[in-house]
C-alpha cells in the first residue's frame, strides 16, 4: 500500500473526536452525569456533612485527574511538534533500496518534534542548549525515525557515557539548580574531564544554541547510518536538513529575557507560522561514503564527535520536508510521540558508531517506562502501512484485538509468516567482523581537538565574538575556581586569543600565553551559520512592531503595515492603550497590544511613523527603552519624519547617522526619512540590496536578520539594553 501525504491524518481521524453541541457529559463507562460540580454528601441546608465515598462520579473525575501525568522524557522533555510531508525530487536508488528515498512520486507523511535537552517540560524555549530535531516518517514500508539535533556532533563517543553527560548538565543533585542552563559547575567539570566534548562545546557556545526559531535551524541525524542498494552495496551516510528560511539566531541578552517574557516563544512561533499557511521547509540531503573508503579520513567516520567536512564529503540534496499541520491535542500527539533510532526501513541500516549502537537500545527501552510496553500502538506512533504480529501482544494497555487460535511462529496454520527480502523483509547488512572483545575505542577516536579548531576557524568574526562571550557567561556562573580555570586553560587547544579573552573575563588562575596545540587555520564550509541565508531574500514571517500613540500619521502607519504584510511579514501594532489610539486625521486604531504588555525582544524589527504622537512616545519609558533595546539587539529600526529625532535620541550615538535633510538615510540598520510623503515612503518594488526607498531599505535590513556591524564596531556596549 502506497502512503500519501494525508495517510497519517486519515489514520488519526479514526481516533479523533470533537464535542458536538448537545453531547452530554458522561462518565467513562457511559452514564450521563446530572451534576458534575458537587460531590455527593450529607447536607441539611445549614450544615455540610461528610462527603460520601459512594460517589462513583466524583471518584472517577478525581482519579482521572490524579493520573493525568506520565513521566516526562528523561532528556528533551521540553518540546513541540507538527505534522508535515516529505517529498523526494531526486531518487537515491543508486545507493539505497528504501522506497522513501527512491520513489519520487511518493508523499510521505511525517511528524517532527523539536525540543531542548536540559530543561524540564515546563522550562523556557530560548535557553542555550542543543535543539532536538526528531523526525518520524510514516513510510509505506514502516516507520523511519531520524532522531537528530540542530548540531551535527555530540558530547561523547560512547553511549555508556550518556547518563554521565546528562547528569552533569541537568540540575545538580543537592539542590536541583539550575533549570534550563548549562551554566553551572557540574556541567563544566564534566566538560573538562571529557576532552572529546571540546568540539561539541564550541557549537553549544556558538549562536547555533540560541536559535531565533525552530523554523530557522538545520537538522542533523548526527550518527552515521548505512544505506544499502538492491545490489547489496553499502554506503555510510549522514542525514541533513537545511531550512529554506536560512539559519538564524537570537542574541544572548534577548534569549535570556524572552525566557521570562515569553517562555513559549518557539512553540508559538512554529504554530503561528503553520496557522498562517507559511509552511516551514527544509531541503533534505545525504552525505555518502562508499564502504571501501571508510578508512580514507584522518578521523573515524563512525565517531559522532566529528563532522564530515563538505569539502571531503559533499551534501547531495535529494528531497524536501515541509511542516503544514499543527497538532489537534498536545498530549496524545506531541507528548506521546516516541522516537527510536532503531526504527529504520529496508534499505537503511545501522553502522558500528558506538553512540548509535547504545541509542538503539536506550530509546526503545525508555519508552517502556514513559508509555508502557504497548507504546507502538498509540495512534501517533503506529505505522500507516499494514502491521501485524501474532507474537508481540498482551501487556499493559493492549488495545488491539487479534483474532485466531495461535500466538507463536511457526504454527500449523502458517499464519503470519515472515517476509523474504524480495517480499520486503528487512535483512541486516552482512558485515564481517574480526576483532578482540575489549572496553575500548579504535585509535582515531583518541584525537579530540582538530575539529574544535576547524569549527572555530570557520566562524565569522561576529560568531567568534559570541563564542567568547558565551564561554565567559557560562563560566562566570561557575563558582568553583578549579572548574572555570581548567576550561579557560583547555580553550588554548582551540585558539589562544579565545582562551585569553575567556580567562581574563572569568578570572582563570592563569591567562594562557602559548597555544596548547598549534592552530594551522584550517577551515571548512557549511559550519558558519552565516553561510545559510535564504536563496531569495525574504521578510516572510518576521515579527514587526509598529509603535503608536494618539496623534500618529495614519497614512504612514497603514501604508507601512500593508506593505510589510504584502511581503508576508507578521505585523503587530503596539499602542499606548488597547482601547484604541487616535490618528492625527481622526481614525481610531485598536492596537494588538499596549506597551506594558509587550517587549521589543519579541519582535524582529520596529517602525515608528511620524505625527504628533512622538511627543507622547517621548514621555513613555517603555517606548524609549524599546528603541534602545532593539538597537542593542541588532534589530532594524525605522522612523519617518517626526519619529527621526525620537529614534536618534534613544540611540544617542554619533556613529549612527539619521536623515538630516529631505531624503532617506540608512546607518547601522537604522532607516530614517525626512520630508518624504507616506505614499512615497512605502513604495516597494522588491527585496533587494540597493533599494532606495524608505520601506524598501527597511525591508532589506529586516531580510538580513540582524546588523552585526553594530556589535563589531562596539556600539552595542554603549547602549542600555
Ligand atoms: C547523536 C546523539 C544524540 C542525539 C542527536 C539525540 C537526540 C535526541 C532527541 C531529538 C530526543 C527527543 C526525541 C523526542 O522529540 O521525543 C532524544 C531523547 C532521548 N535521548 Fe537522545 N540523542 C543523542 C544521544 C543519546 C544517547 C547516547 C542516548 C542514550 C544512550 C540517548 C537517549 C535518549 C533518551 C532516553 C531520550 C528520551 C526519549 C523519550 O522519552 O522519548 N540519546 N534524543
From TrEMBL:
InterPro entries: Catalase, Catalase_AS, Catalase_clade2, Catalase_clade2_helical, Catalase_core, Catalase_haem_BS, Catalase_immune_responsive, Catalase_large_C. It holds the Pfam family DJ-1_PfpI. GO terms for biological process: cellular response to hydrogen peroxide; hydrogen peroxide catabolic process. Its cofactor is heme. Residues 26-417 form the Catalase core domain. The active site is at 76, 149. Heme binds at residue 363. It catalyses: 2 H2O2 = O2 + 2 H2O. Signal peptide: none annotated. GO terms for cellular component: cytosol. GO terms for molecular function: catalase activity; heme binding; metal ion binding. It is an enzyme of class 1 (oxidoreductase). Catalyzes the degradation of hydrogen peroxide (H(2)O(2)) generated by peroxisomal oxidases to water and oxygen, thereby protecting cells from the toxic effects of hydrogen peroxide. Belongs to the catalase family. PANTHER family: CATALASE (PTHR42821), CATALASE-B (PTHR42821:SF1). This is Catalase. The lineage of its organism: Eukaryota, Fungi, Dikarya, Ascomycota, Pezizomycotina.
